[in-house]
Amino acid sequence: MTMKVSCPTCQKQVEWSTENKFRPFCSERCKLIDLGEWADESHRIAGEPDRQQMEQMSDDELMAMMVKLQAKPDSD
């Protein structure tokens, strides 16, 4: 039985196999769209905001960030 997955770009169902050279994408087009989204920073790996980003945040955004950080369990 072949496993099927959704293309991350268009959601089309595609087979997850070594024969699909674009996996997990359905096509080269979808693969390039995804690459472009990473290149223009539409996709990012989450991280803590830096000082410049924090200075641009509204008071409500800063408060929400502080509440979220306080709710995190200690990783020590």
UniProtKB/TrEMBL annotation:
GO terms for biological process: regulation of DNA-templated transcription. Gene3D superfamilies: Erythroid Transcription Factor GATA-1, subunit A. GO terms for molecular function: DNA topoisomerase type II (double strand cut, ATP-hydrolyzing) inhibitor activity; zinc ion binding. Keywords: Metal-binding, Zinc. Binds 1 zinc ion. Its cofactor is Zn(2+). Transmembrane segments: none annotated. InterPro entries: DNA_gyrase_inhibitor_YacG, Znf_NHR/GATA. Signal peptide: none annotated. It comes from the Bacteria. It holds the Pfam family YacG. Zn(2+) binds at C7, C10, C26, C30. The keyword Ribonucleoprotein does not apply. PANTHER family: DNA GYRASE INHIBITOR YACG. Interacts with GyrB. Belongs to the DNA gyrase inhibitor YacG family. Inhibits all the catalytic activities of DNA gyrase by preventing its interaction with DNA. Acts by binding directly to the C-terminal domain of GyrB, which probably disrupts DNA binding by the gyrase. This is DNA gyrase inhibitor YacG. The gene is yacG.
